[in-house]
Amino acid sequence: MQNKVDLIEHCVSSNTLVEGGMLTVKRDQVRLPNGNLSQREYVVHPGAVVIVAILANGNVVLERQFRYPLHQVFIELPAGKMDANEAVLAAGQRELTEETGYVARSWVNLGYHHPCIGYSNEVIHMYLATGLIAGEHKRDEDETLEVFDVPFARCIEMVECGEITDSKTITALFIAEKYLVKHHVDI
User: Fold this and answer.
1) Phi, psi (degrees; rounded to nearest 5) at 92
2) 130 to each of 21, 134, 137, how far by Cα in Å?
3) Model pLDDT for residues 119-154, shown as the tens digit of each residue
4) How far is Cα 81 from Cα 87, in angstroms, rounded to an integer?
């Protein structure tokens, strides 16, 4: 049997560089497996949820939203950050209603992913939401977006042609597609 290589880095000291309303930037001094010291800078994130919400006609609920860091409008699935001490499913339910007005009768946990492991501890939880009931959105005052829906196959085409480039949306769509195929759900 082959011996496993020790890959674990151990924190020696930690310093907060920036503490914002949502994000914190830290610089840690770490001891490497070979004994040397190094620096690691990273963003501390509260976690997030993304929802693949499917209407009765099979269409997927999407949003157009301006994202300031890249100064452009993106097409995304409904998503948002988790509040402190909030359960993951509750965050997904809250975000879906806040952003789109929809409430879902059925929720399937599709797992989670780490979108930027080189510089953040962010975890994004993914859900499939069906049995949607339309209602009024409850967006935050600083949240402006356009909600629309398209067939699932069109979503995949939008990824393939570069119309959808948001990583959480791409990941959640492909995981949802795999789940739906495995469970013989027409999309």
Assistant:
1) -65, -45
2) 33, 12, 17
3) 999 999 999 999 999 998 988 888 899 999 999 999
4) 11
Does one domain contain both 69 and 39? no
* 5 inside domain: no
* 54: β partners: 60
Known catalytic residues?
Answer: 141
pTM equals: 0.93
**Cα dist from 125 to 52, 90, 114, 154, whole Å:** 11, 12, 9, 23
Using DSSP, state whether 99 is helix, strand or coil.
Answer: helix
Range of the domain at 156: 48-182
Query: What are the strands, taking DSSP E only, across 32-102?
Result: 37-44, 48-53, 59-67, 72-76, 79-81
